[in-house]
Amino acid sequence: MAHDEPAEWNAAQARVDRARGLFQSGKLEEAAMEIRRALATDPERGDWHHNLAVTLDALGRHAEAMASYERALELVPNHAHASIGAAQGSIRLGKLEACVKHCEHAVRIDSKLEPAYSLRIMALGMLGRHEEAESVYFLAQQYLPEMPLCLAEMATVLANRGKFDRAIWCYRESIAQNPKLSTVKTRLGIVMLRARQPEGAHQVLLQAFREQPGDAPTMLALGTALEALGRPDEAEEKYRHIIELEPANPLAHVRLGDLALRAGRLDEARAAYTLVVSLGMRDLPVRLRLVEVLSRLGMHSDARRQLEDLFGRSPAAQTGLIISDASVAYGAAGAALDCGTPIIAVKLMRAAVALAADDQRHWKRLSRALFESGDRLGGRRAARRALLIDRHCPDTLHNIALDALRNGTQRDLRRATAALRRGIGHSPHDEGLRKLRVKVFVLRVTARLRQYARTLASIAGAIRLPRW
Fold it and tell me: Any idea what the Cα angle at residue 253 is, between residues 271 and 232, rounded to 5°?
């Protein structure tokens, strides 16, 4: 800007000052407009570009904000806060390596700037570079007497690695250094739930809820804690409160659907899951729960359409779906069997046994799915795995006997008889086993009669009658 234009410069500075007041009063669009007008007068002011970036971030226009942060750094390379803003923007846009570089630049400018360390720990953790994240944490200790943000991010890295005790300690230390970090209390409560400490999680989350009563993630976590404590009615109240504040919150609707499903309120569960899908949430567990509900309601054609939409009409070649919840896979596999799609049931149950190989129900259902899909050898192997966990399981023994009867040889009949004898010996009143035992008895009698008939025919053929 030319030095003979002080009036225009003063007017531009006045716009920036006005924008600051508008920003503080929540009038973000007007604030951004004022800064843009000031920049039209003097586009080389890096600090003003930084102010515009902060305003755009507050408006949720993160891509535009990122461009303004980068422009600010071009004009003022040693602008530490612009580097931090660019690091935050990089994380929002999924550019984690860029975040690390911006943080390293910020530390070179100011070694005592805590967000430069905490954001770097976050990015490295998300990249899976856990040892580097821990090195940054120890580096921060050399420069910062207190570092609640670094402690919180290090706790998240540790929790994601399953090191819950260390993570809980870091979260507690973070809160001790800065008790106003309510979001950290929520994160602590969630990790305590993962560590199976529902009582402690409930206390922490209740405190976080009192500090920020309208925060949806805190209410969701508090509802989860209440469910873990066996208080589903109170949990449902929390989820409904979220929906009052945010009617389109998909996670709250999912939780309500899960509560309804567990309580056997199938129509209510179907309505919740259908609404979530209509809101655009294509989360696989939700869609598999919807399949289970539709099947249990007898709506098998609708359930089958959902399965074919997920797995395709040729599921044998489909391998792209990743399932991380064994109970969801188990329920959907039962629906797939009821809908006449055993190949899909096999895929679902293979995912379930990979996640929980010690659950006998999973091997039992996998065995049934394999038998129904035509893989008899695989079905027998899965049945043997189920019997290793529960050697008297009536359903598994029933399936083994039924498979043996398909050939009907003497050896297979003996195998079926042995399985039924073991099952009935432990569960004498099991209706399925008793009916199958009758069938095996009839088949064995029939086989013996046929053998006697063949023996008699052979004897008769061997007898030489005298000639007349």
Answer: 100
Q: Can you tell me the distance from the alpha carbon of 462 to that of 120, in angstroms, rounded to the nearest whole number?
A: 95
User: 388 CB contacts (<8 Å, ≥6 apart)?
Assistant: none
Element (H, E) at 261: helix 250-262
CB within 8 Å of 106: residues ≥ 6 apart:
80, 83, 84, 87, 113, 115, 116
Q: What is the pTM of this model?
A: 0.76
256-284 CB burial, b ≥16 within 10 A, e <16: bbbbbbeeebbebbbbbbbbbbeeebeeb
Work out the percent of the chain whose per-residue pLDDT is above 70: 88
Token code pair at residue 183: 């979001």
For residue range 285-342, list pLDDT tens digits in order.
999 999 999 999 999 999 999 998 888 866 554 555 678 889 999 999 999 999 999 9
Q: What would you report as the CA-atom Rg of the chain, rounded to the nearest whole angstrom?
A: 33
Percent of the chain with pLDDT strictly greater than 90: 61
8 A C-beta contact, residue 365 and residue 347: no
Amino acid at 213: P
User: Cα(341)–Cα(353) distance, rounded to whole angstroms?
Assistant: 19
- Give the model's pLDDT for residue 395: 77
Domains of the chain: 180-279 (1.25.40.10)
CA dist 334 and 313 (Å) reads: 18
State the Cα angle at 99 between 95 and 104, rounded to 5°.
Answer: 155
Q: Which residues of the chain have pLDDT under 70?
A: 1-5, 313-321, 404-405, 407-410, 412-413, 416, 419, 432-433, 440-452, 454, 456-457, 459-468
What's the rounded Cα separation, in Å, for the pair 107 and 120?
10
SS3 content of the chain, % helix, strand, coil (to 5): 80, 0, 20
Measured CA to CA, the distance from residue 173 to residue 24 in angstroms comes to: 32
